[in-house]
Design brief:
With 305 residues, this protein is α/β, with parallel strands linked by helices. It folds into 3 domains: 8-87, Winged helix-like DNA-binding domain superfamily/Winged helix DNA-binding domain (Arc Repressor Mutant, subunit A); 96-160 and 272-303, D-Maltodextrin-Binding Protein, domain 2, CATH 3.40.190; 165-264, D-Maltodextrin-Binding Protein, domain 2 (3-Layer(aba) Sandwich), CATH 3.40.190. The protein has 10 helices and 12 strands. Strands 4-3-5-12-6 form a 5-stranded mixed beta sheet, sandwiched between helices. Helix 7 (200-207) links the parallel strand 8 (190-194) and strand 9 (217-221). The chain is elongated.
C-alpha cells in the first residue's frame, strides 16, 4: 500500500517552527532564511488543506489541530536522529545562539569583544539583533536578552554582568579650542543630549550644583551611540557611560575633564528563559560575558577610582 507522505522539507520546517515557537528561530536552526521557512510552511498547509498557525501581526501561534500534529511528529524526528547516530553518522546538533541587546551596548561593548568568544567556540553560530524595546514587548523569542537591571520577569532568570557610571566626556581637540577646567566652564560649550535619555545632563548638573547653567548651545541626537560619536568628533560634551567609553578613553579619543560627580546607572544584565538556562551553548555564553564584564568593571574602577 502506497504511503501518503507530506513534503519532508516542509514538515521539517513546521516541526522546528512549532517546537521553537518562532519562524525566525526555526530559520536559524535550519540555516535558511525566514522567508524559506514561511514558504515551506505555506506549502505544507496547502498540502494538508488546513492552517497550521494563526498569524497575529508578527507573532504566530499553533492551531489546536497543529499542536496535536506537532506532538505526534516531533518524536519521529528524534527517533530518526537517534537511528542515524546508531548507524554511525552523528546527528547534527543545533549550535545557534540568538541574542537581543541595546544598540549602543552592542556597537561599543559587545561586538568589539566577540572575537574572543568566536575563537573559543567557533561551532556556535551567533545571531544578534539590536533593540531598546522592553523585554516583555519583544515580538520574537531569543536565547539571551541583554537589558538594564536588575529587574524581575516571570519565566526568566536574571544575572548582572557589567556595572557603570556616567560622567561628562569630550575630545582632546575640543579642550584645545575651549578650556574646560570646572563645571562652570560648560557655559562656553555645546552640550550633547540623547532624546531617549533626557535627564542625564539635568541630573548631572544638579549634582554638580550647577542646575541653572545655560550652555553656549545644545545638540540632541536620537541614539546614544550617535551622541558619543559626536563627542569623539569634537562637536561638544556628552554624558559618557564608563563601561562603553573605556576603549575611547584608553585610546585618547575621549577624555573626562572632571573627576566627578558621576551618575549611578543601572547594571547590564542577561535575561534567559527558565527552560533554556541549562542549555550548554547558553551557559557558555553567560560564562564568557560575565568574565568579560567582571574584567571591564575592574578596569573601569581602576581608571575611575
Amino acid at each position: 500500500m502506497k504511503r501518503v507522505m507530506p513534503p519532508l522539507n516542509a514538515l521539517r520546517a513546521f516541526e522546528a517552527a512549532g517546537r521553537l515557537g518562532s519562524f525566525k528561530e526555526a530559520a536559524a536552526e535550519l540555516h535558511v532564511t525566514h522567508g524559506a521557512v514561511s514558504q515551506q510552511i505555506r506549502a505544507l498547509e496547502e498540502w494538508l488543506g488546513a492552517a497550521l498557525f494563526e498569524r497575529h501581526n508578527r507573532r504566530v501561534v499553533l492551531t489546536a489541530a497543529a499542536s496535536v500534529y506537532l506532538a505526534q511528529i516531533t518524536p519521529l524526528f528524534e527517533s530518526l536522529a537517534q537511528a542515524t547516530g546508531h548507524y554511525g553518522i552523528p546527528a547534527p546538533i543545533s549550535h545557534s545562539l540568538s541574542l537581543n541587546a541595546p544598540s549602543t551596548f552592542a556597537l561599543r561593548w559587545l561586538v568589539p569583544k566577540l572575537a574572543s568568544f568566536r575563537k573559543a567556540h567557533p561551532d556556535i553560530a551567533l545571531k544578534i539583533d539590536t533593540s531598546n524595546e522592553p523585554l516583555e514587548s519583544l515580538k520574537d523569542a531569543y536565547d539571551i536578552v541583554i537589558r538594564g537591571g536588575p529587574d524581575t520577569f516571570y519565566g526568566y532568570s536574571m544575572r548582572p554582568f557589567l556595572h557603570e557610571e556616567r560622567l561628562p566626556v569630550c575630545s582632546p581637540a575640543l579642550l584645545q579650542r575651549i578650556e574646560l577646567h570646572e563645571p562652570a566652564d560648560l557655559r562656553r560649550h555645546t552640550l550633547l543630549h540623547t532624546s531617549s535619555l533626557p535627564r542625564l545632563w539635568p541630573d548631572w548638573l544638579a549634582q554638580a550644583r550647577m542646575g541653572e547653567l545655560q550652555p553656549a548651545a545644545t545638540v540632541t541626537l536620537d541614539h546614544f551611540y550617535l551622541t558619543l560619536q559626536a563627542a569623539v568628533d569634537g562637536m561638544g560634551v556628552a554624558m559618557g557611560p564608563t563601561a562603553l567609553i573605556a576603549d575611547d578613553l584608553a585610546a585618547g579619543r575621549l577624555v573626562a575633564p572632571f573627576e566627578g560627580p558621576r551618575l549611578p546607572s543601572r547594571s547590564y544584565c542577561t535575561y534567559v528563559r527558565d527552560e533554556g538556562a541549562e542549555q550548554p551553548r547558553i551557559a557558555l555564553f553567560l560564562e564568557w560575558i560575565e568574565h568579560e564584564g567582571a574584567h571591564a568593571t575592574r578596569s573601569t574602577r581602576k581608571d575611575f577610582p
